Amino acid sequence: MTAPQPRAHLAHVPAYKPGKPPVAREDLVTYKLSSNENPYPPLPGVVTAAHAAVDTMNRYPDMGNGLLYSGLAQELGVPESHLAAGTGSVALIYQLLTAFCEPGDEVVYAWRSFEAYPIAVSTCGATSVQVPVLADGRHDLDAMLDAITDRTKVVMVCTPNNPTGPALTQTELDAFLGRVPTHVVVVVDEAYLEFVRNADAVDGIATYARHENVVLFRTFSKAYGLAGFRVGYAVAPEPIATALRQVSLPFGVSSVAQVAAVASLEAADALLERVDALVAERDRLQAALAAQGWDLPDAQGNFLWFALGERTADFALACDDAGIVVRPFAGEGCRVSVGETEANDRLLEVAATFV
Ligand SMILES: *Cc1c(COP(=O)(O)O)cnc(C)c1O
């Protein structure tokens, strides 16, 4: 008798390592800086709206995400038919690969980049082609172009890049898109879009509108502080958005999540003020770390990247001791989310002993 066997490529799916939660301590308050979450608690108005939605949990959610699509369409100035929602933008990565990749098709992306990419690619039976980021944490766009073959179906760029931090410029993205064959889907993962402050920043909406093969992925998890509710969306030309909707889980985005996302769009001003405060903290940290002698990549998201190599585990341990949990990538470096001011101050203290 033989036991049931999952599809062979599951043997090659790496595990996702989530950022650890902090352990409670008696001597000091501990902080989680390991998952790029928003440290602010939800806005009261958003909580009230979500509570109201709980009262109808016996009903299925609106499968068409009607209020969410109309709110987004108005906010972004795009047709509703160009939107596709999912349970976090991670789900949209799976949807896109499911919709576009046959087994063995290639997906080109930078590495190190978002940990979910290789997992999603191998789960969908496609093949990852990872192009190392440059020494300063930026995408090597020329090498990514060179990596495109007849088998390439999708190229993903992550801007700002998680975990290294730098963002693409519009000039770089335009030059890149001008050279990618038009039958290749280009995903622009903009999970941290709201935190970008560099000159010549990417205008995702203007960009996708000029290309038939460009998809933007966005999320309510980071700037909008809804990580626990799982809502993300794609903005794409209609044929791609349609394909993304076709392969979505029926009723994926819960009714509470839809309501909270719509309420968050309505509260955008208040939420984006908080983003400004986080950006100010990020820039305070970058300046203080530079003064300590660190040469970190340009941080355009809500996190910093310390390329510590062999010292990665030691740094993570020292942070643990100081009551802040960071995200180590063994042998490569630590990603540290911008958090509460007290947590950020402790990071500076630890970093000072590691320069
Ligand atoms: C956090 C993150 C996402 C989105 O995650 P969801 O919570 O699934 O919306 C997408 N891409 C990158 C690069 C991220 O860091």
From TrEMBL:
One of its GO terms (molecular function) is pyridoxal phosphate binding. Signal peptide: none annotated. Residues 32-349 form the Aminotransferase class I/classII large domain. It comes from the Bacteria. Homodimer. Belongs to the class-II pyridoxal-phosphate-dependent aminotransferase family. This is Aromatic amino acid aminotransferase. It comes from Nocardioides bruguierae. The gene is hisC.
